[in-house]
Design goal:
It comes from Leifsonia aquatica ATCC 14665. Belongs to the autoinducer-2 exporter (AI-2E) (TC 2.A.86) family. This protein is an all-alpha fold. It has a domain of about 160 residues. The protein contains 11 helices and no strands. Helix 2 packs across helix 5, helix 7 packs antiparallel against helix 8 and helix 9 packs antiparallel against helix 10.
Length: about 350
């Protein structure tokens, strides 16, 4: 092939490469915003089944939306209201006990006891080395503490943004879907709309199924931890609820944290909690999860594991949450689009 104008071809190719790099750079720069949008849209699709349920009971959409949001936000505020006073009270008690312990000479006695038991480790030379290291690395430690505080503030700001976007997406979800369907050629629009509705319904049902499992774990944890006399049962039950929202590893991670905290109440309490969560995880895996999730998404178990691991590796917790309904949507497309088209060839 003879190139008539090499300069023009090179210029067009360079501009194309530059445009591609610009697009990729923009995506990387907007990764946080894209994550917020994805999380809000995911939550909006999860809230939609509740709104549809009320609409089927002859509620206007605006009233169904208002009732749903008030109930969800009220429940969230109620949980925070139950946790924050306990956390503040326990933190205050810990600080007061620490101050009293130091003032009464307990810290000095404890240090002398350690120095007596481990003379080769706790001596003047090692203490001076540790003090010198702290003095040298104090700016770096302070910087990391400030970065952690900044990250907490940014996380709280991100939660507020996600809540606002979720409310907006939930209110305008039908119009967003109609606008997306308008981009498809008219000859394929009805088929695309039907497939899109099935995918969004499966995502919503998956979210509701995961929340139902988490709610069961939270309620049962609160009851059992209260019975065995564990400290902070409401706080621990909330931890069980939020960790159960994470597929595969959420329940076991939350259980390990709860059992570790139960050690504060004594070894018998921790052992009882460990036995309970071992039994509960079996019941959830073989009884609750199949009955609840099979009604939401029909995905083979092996694909669930692969999708959750891949999504968690790419996008963290959000990726693990989105991966399973994404896999269900992909299977739906393959069954209803790809396979019928292959059968026609």
């Amino acid at each position: 092939m003879k190139i008539q104008n090499a300069f023009r071809v090179g210029l067009i190719g360079t501009l194309g490469v530059g445009l591609g790099i610009l697009i990729l750079t923009s995506i990387v720069s907007l990764a946080t915003i894209i994550t917020y949008i994805g999380a809000a849209l995911f939550l909006a699709l999860g809230i939609e089944p509740l709104i549809s349920f009320l609409e089927r009971r002859r509620f206007p959409r605006w009233l169904a939306l208002t009732i749903t949001l008030v109930v969800i936000i009220g429940a969230f505020v109620g949980v925070i209201w139950a946790i924050v006073p306990v956390a503040i009270s326990q933190a205050t008690q810990l600080v007061n006990n620490t101050i009293s312990w130091v003032n009464s000479g307990g810290a000095e006695d404890w240090f002398q006891s350690l120095q007596h038991q481990f003379p080769s480790v706790i001596n003047d030379q090692n203490i001076n080395a540790v003090t010198q290291w702290l003095q040298q690395n104090l700016p770096d430690i302070t910087s990391k503490v400030l970065q952690t505080a900044s990250g907490i503030v940014q996380g709280a700001f991100g939660v507020i943004i996600v809540i606002i976007l979720t409310i907006y997406f939930t209110a305008s979800l039908p119009s967003i879907k109609r606008a997306a369907y308008q981009l498809v050629p008219a000859s394929r629009r009805s088929r695309f709309a039907d497939l899109g509705d099935q995918i969004t319904d499966s995502v919503g049902k998956y979210v509701m199924g995961q929340v139902s499992l988490a709610l069961v774990n939270g309620v049962l944890s609160a009851i059992f931890l209260t019975i065995i006399g564990a400290k902070f049962p409401v706080l621990l039950a909330t931890i069980a609820f939020f960790f159960s929202l994470i597929p595969l590893v959420g329940t076991i991670t939350g259980s390990v944290i709860i059992v570790a905290v139960c050690i504060l109440s004594g070894p018998p309490t921790a052992i009882a909690a460990a036995i309970y969560y071992l039994v509960y995880m079996q019941v959830e895996a073989y009884v609750l999860s199949p009955r609840i999730m099979n009604r939401a998404v029909s995905v083979p178990g092996a694909l669930v594991v692969v999708a959750a691991l891949a999504g968690g590796t790419l996008l963290g917790i959000l990726g693990a949450l989105v991966a399973i309904p994404f896999a269900a949507a992909l299977l739906l497309i393959i069954k209803q689009v790809v396979i019928p088209r292959q059968n026609e060839l």
